[in-house]
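This entry is listed below:
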Amino acid sequence: MAKSPKVIITCAITGATHTPTMSEYLPVTPDAIIEQAAGAAEAGAAILHLHARDAKTNRPTGDLDTWFHILKSLKGRTDAVLNMTTGGSTYMSIEERLAPPLAAEPELCSCNMGSMNFGTYTMIPRYQGKWKHDWEEGYLEASRGAIFRNTFADIETILTKLGDKGTRFEFECYDVGHLYNLAHMVDRGLVKLPMFVQLIIGTLGGIGADPENLMFMKKTADKLFGDQYRWSVLAGGRNQIPRCTMSASMGGNVRVGLEDSLYAGPGRLATSNAEQVTMIRKIIEDLSLEVASPDEARAMLGLKGKDKVAF
């Protein structure tokens, strides 16, 4: 695959990890998600990675009406690629996670490449006694004994059911073994090449955020996939901007957003997703690289186009 000087910025708007107490700037209602996603696109994000949240409880939700309100609103306001999660949250079944994207038939979906521990309970002590909602502490504590399930059967289901609708994938790999799981799916012909691989570092339960680990993940992907993939980096918390900078300088793409980090500097909460996009865009341009537009990202990733979705 020919290398491109253009860098795709993905912005992950809200996710299912952070809870409302953690930041007043985290968008936790459908309308807030829409506003912040539109702002991130205006700031330079070509891809918007989306989860939905309930307007009343602010919890992650798979409700179809909520999802379609978000998707239709954003489609009317931006040309950005709308990337729907198939991860949902750790506590959703595969059927619950798949229902929204199967109904919406988006251009792009995430696809997690292995089951894993996904620990968020370590955040509880920082917010003890300050919870805005009574569900938050229990939600985080439950991660101590939960498994984020992504079996081979689950992955096959995602690839076949969504692939039949023309949806392409952002393959989320939290550890080296996930790259080998992806190679297995490629060998079986379930993954269409070239593909888009997200190297995820710094999640409790996955590989650590050390620079050496990122280099090893990239080296392994090169060995397994040659030139048949594009790649990006997602690093949580304080590692977000440094590791995304590393990715851009190595020829990769980047993912930022309040799903992955709530901060815009040491001890300073980001006031929006757009702020993080602006930060990484400046770094990319300071590296004498160009930021990809949504249509350029579509061409780079071989997407079907926003006119071929079901929303």
User: Anything to note?
Assistant: The mean pLDDT is 97. The longest helix spans residues 211-225. The domain at 6-308 is CATH 3.20.20.70 (TIM Barrel). The two ends are 31 Å apart (CA to CA).
